Amino acid sequence: xxxxxxxxxxxxxxxxxxxxxxxxxxLASPARGxxxxxxxxxxxxxxxxxxxxxxxxxxxxRDPDYIxxxxxxxxxxxxxxxxxxxxRTRGDLTSELDxxxxxxxxxxxDRVINAFALPGGWMGVQLGLVNVTISSDEIAAVLAHELxxxxxxxxxxxxxxxxxxxxxxxxAMILGAIAMSKNxxxxxxxxxxxxxxxxxxxxxxxxxxxxxxxxxxxxxxTQAGYDPQAFVTMFEKLQQASxxxxxxxxxxxxxxxxxxxRIAEAQSRQQLAARPAGAGASxxxxxxxxxxxxxxxxPGVDGLRAYASEADGPQAAGGDRxxxxxxxxxxxxxxxxxxxxxxxxxxxxxxxxxxxxxxxxVRQSRLLDAEIAFLAGDMARASSxxxxxxxxxxxxxxxxQARIQGGKPKEAAQRLQTWVALxxxxxxxxxxxxxxxxxxxxxxxxxxxEAEAQVAHLDYxxxxxxxxxxxxxxxxxxxAGDHIxxxxxxxxxxxxxxxxxxxxxxx
Length: 507
Description:
By secondary structure, this protein is mainly alpha-helical. The protein is 66% helix and 4% strand. It is built from 21 helices and 6 strands. The chain has helices at 46-62, 70-90, 95-100, 127-131, 136-151, 154-182, 184-223, 229-241, 259-272, 284-297, 301-309, 321-337, 341-355, 359-375, 379-385, 393-405, 409-422, 427-440, 443-456, 460-476, 483-506; strands at 4-5, 8-9, 66-67, 104-108, 115-118, 122-126. It has a 4-stranded mixed β-sheet with strand order 3-4-6-5, with helices on both faces. A two-stranded antiparallel sheet has the order 1-2. α2 (70-90) crosses α7 (184-223), α6 (154-182) packs antiparallel against α7 (184-223) and α12 packs parallel to α14 (359-375). It is flat, with a radius of gyration of 26 Å. It starts with a strand and ends with a helix.
């Protein structure tokens, strides 16, 4: 299962359209699915593109494949942030886009090798993409390409191109209608020819944009200090993944350039680019992230058992240290998902020993140890291992979860309050804050936190429902919360109602 937009998978190819007037819709990039209607076909403003991106992002958050994992989120965000900084340095990311767009990454747990850019600075990444990479450089290559689709305003430019094609389509329809009155077959031929001309123009435009995203993305990733060779290796992996369904025929009917062509161009570019020191080395951190991604994207019992059995194989015994750490992490995490906590704890102890000396890997081992303790119900150990006062999100989130479950919700609420004040779009933190308030019997603040979690996911109607419920609590039980909190709820209700009205206008 992949991300779906408006009932369709984000990776679906557009279907053949029989009406010539609908030909321009084929301009939507098939790698990111059919997008909602782009208005009247005129140039799209930054504000309009932002709203379009939010509309699609709301659907992504509702998709059952959406996954919230603080550990993987932190890792992908670290790569994403470096690329954004590089795009700013190069001048690709203008101050207007930087200020107005979201620049957020949404993870999906599908094993398909896919990432896609959306209007308004949103990025979708499937765990299948993480699974096949051998370094952060390869992830950076894909994200840089998709980032460049956004910074180069490709959605807006496609909209403009669509408006240019409309006269061709209308003319074809009129000529076809005239011809049909005399010869139906000739009329159909005129209609098909007009549609084909418009579609071919759109395909050529899309291929040019893919080439531009390759070129600009290559510059962004090298500016960020990633290995340029990763652009080549990722194209080779994409070619291998599609070899069963793509025989290379009909390159003129493609929205993307031929993969072989893109590999050749990337190879010529990387020969001229400076190779960063240590590039290409398989980092222990990346190996751990791939291990975690593999387990999360394959949660079936048989798959978890297979991963758990890897601890008895030669890769876990010695040899390449990074591979050993990755194997032990996979096995320990899989055993925890299978709820065999004694086995998981034994494996995480081996993991800690194998990771000794590498501070980053030791941290991930400690986090996994805390997660296993939490899943096993040992909240005291989970709390001691996960530092709730940490400035890093995974420790803070896990520490808050352990303290809420361990009967210390006040400690969790205090830390979470500070966190959401600085990170108001962190839906998971708001949800946990709501749970912490509920555990303390603070119903008013709990409901408000639940509402803010919905706002963070752009579900304004659900947020208003929760805000109104909080207002009811405040009116029926004046002592349930202070006047300041009630005033905040009233203000936020009006603000979110305004956002909801904007959504209604969009429809």
